[in-house]
What we know:
The chain is α+β, with helices and mostly antiparallel strands.
Amino acid sequence: xxxxxxxxxxxxxxxxxxxxxxxxxxxxxxxxxxxxxxxxxxxxxxxxxxxxxxxxxxxxxxxxxxxxxxxxxxxxxxxxxxxxxxxxxxxxxxxxxxxxxxxxxxxxxxxxxxxxxxxxxxxxxxxxxxxxxxxxxxxxxxxxxxxxxxxxxxxxxxxxxxxxxxxxxxxxxxxxxxxxxxxxxxxxxxxxxxxxxxxx
Length: 200
């Protein structure tokens, strides 16, 4: 039963090869070539993971990387199942990424390694920017660093012991208060100006 469940779970996953790198080791008889692969795996419903693998042949390296990615899947909360909940920054080594939430119809605005992560995660609308190192390994890790720090309103409400509606309600009330204050300030400024004009 467990095997059937695992097979069904793995069949829903899609994988994308982000990068493949050929490395050479110099030995007495000449050079020995190997391959390093970076793979991103996800179910396009909020779960994603990445893995790396090294082997003498390309297919074996990809298989190792895919297996590692499947074992390192993480769940990321998505807003309406299409974008991230809020803007966030991620960093790994010399790579920095900025991820921004986007309205419907925006699409995935991202570079190669980041695009692979978003497509396998199931994000449809996002704007991202990469700063610093463009190494695929660092960019993927920086993207994951940012995604792991995303918090949904539900998780914040649970932590504070509040309802989700009350969190958004407070924000609206604060906006109303700030609008009232700005209106009062504008009225007082207009009155002052009119008084000055009358004095003149």
